[in-house]
Amino acid sequence: MIGLGKMGGNMARRLLANGTAIVGYNKDRDATAALADETGFEAAATVAELVGRLDTPRKVWMMLPAGDVTEGVFLELLNLLEPGDLIVDGANSWYKDSVRRAGIASERKISFTDAGVSGGIWGLENGYCLMVGGANEAFAAIEPAVRQLAPS
Fold first, then answer.
1. End-to-end CA distance of the chain, in Å?
2. Number of Cβ atoms within 10 Å of the Cβ of 148
3. How far apart are CA 13 and CA 38, in angstroms?
4. Greatest CA separation found in the chain?
5. How far is CA 145 from CA 43, 107, 124, 151, in A?
6. pLDDT at 90
7. Which long-range contacts (CB under 8 A, 24 or more apart) does 41-46 make?
8. For a tag on the chain, would you pick the N or C end, based on fewer CB atoms within 10 A?
9. Spatial distance between the Cα atoms of 123 and 7, rounded to a whole number of angstroms
10. CA-CA distance, 16 to 115, in Å (whole number)?
11. Which helix H or strand E contains 2, and what residues bound it?
């Protein structure tokens, strides 16, 4: 999980509570450390370190602000991931950006899904509404996490 703010942090908490192992990164190292201390997830100091700690095929879920921040991390991930890995964009990005990113990732044989998320800070308790777009195989790879994040 890249981006451990209010949404990403609570999504990580919900996944952890449901037994999913998390490696987390946030540009604010104090926020990463505090959440790791609270939950026991594996903290990474950089995006590269996060990718290096994941088993293949890797699944990297970005919960970042739409726009330049998401674009920058997406491009960084393209240089770190390998064919067969998967990027999930939870930024509620503009659909044309998601289509473009999916095409770029596909050229490198990296899967891409966009996963618009709503639920705010209440999602931790109540679950999140996720609107996932992408290839069936990519969705199948993240479906267990999507089910854990969704309302029960």
1. 22
2. 18
3. 9
4. 39
5. 19, 26, 13, 12
6. 94
7. 41/12, 41/16
8. C
9. 8
10. 19
11. none
For Cα atoms 112, 117, 118, give the angle at the middle one, nearest 5 degrees: 170
Q: What is the DSSP secondary-structure string of 50-96?
A: HHHHSPSSPEEEE---TTHHHHHHHHHHHTT--TT-EEEE-S---HH
Tens of pLDDT along 19-53?
A: 999 999 999 999 999 999 999 999 999 999 999 99
d(CA 104, CA 128): 28
Q: What are the tokens at 9?
A: 């942090």
Query: H or E element: which one contains 112?
Result: strand 111-118
Which tokens hold the place of 150? 């969704």
pLDDT tens sequence across 70-127: 999 999 999 999 999 999 999 889 999 999 999 999 999 999 999 999 987 789 999 9
Q: Which residues pair with 89 in a beta bridge?
A: 62, 114
- Cα Rg, the chain, nearest whole Å: 14
Q: What 3-state DSSP class applies to 118?
A: strand
